[in-house]
Fold:
Amino acid sequence: GAVVSQHPSWVICKSGTSVKIECRSLDFQATTMFWYRQFPKQSLMLMATSNEGSKATYEQGVEKDKFLINHASLTLSTLTVTSAHPEDSSFYICSAPKGSTDTQYFGPGTRLTVL
Amino acid sequence: QKEVEQDPGPLSVPEGAIVSLNCTYSNSAFQYFMWYRQYSRKGPELLMYTYSSGNKEDGRFTAQVDKSSKYISLFIRDSQPSDSATYLCAMRSNQAGTALIFGKGTTLSVSS
Structure:
């Protein structure tokens, strides 16, 4: 069964609004979670590393103020896309490492469409 | 040179064929290697996870790692139409909590 969940699975919003995406680890704790973005027919691009109890680490070129990450608990990380624009439309996927081998499991993804 | 190279394909094979998917990498710090399968509009699903050089088999899937050549492979035997998906190789260093580095993914189509 699924080990990482995401909500919502899809969302449509108007330009200028903010959208929050939740990522939850199921039945295990994750001090670190990762947020990826994927455009059609392209691979996953790491956006940021979410750290429980401290600030997220953003990859080069990713705007911290636009993509707000909050690792609220050991099982929940949220990504908020602020003042969304059509170019933010994409597939957002989170992952969490589990177990002694730190194997990463991915959520089902959230498809964001900004009109 | 990108850290991980993977031929995006597409790769089309008939049902029952043996499929070989490959990735090369340049960073010798990579120690953990994974293969994920991703169906359209879904999150990646972990297929195989390997650490040491050599082969690891799981059902119809065999993962192969050659650290000396910095080359990893995934073999799919008796391929099925349900195997049609994008296959992503991924790898990371020994350091806990580090993100995965992905290949571009190879799109596979298995026809019945």
Q: What stands out?
A: Residues 25 and 104 of chain B are 12 Å apart (CA to CA). Chain B is about 0% helix and 55% strand. Chain B has a mean pLDDT of 93. The two ends of chain B are 37 Å apart (CA to CA).
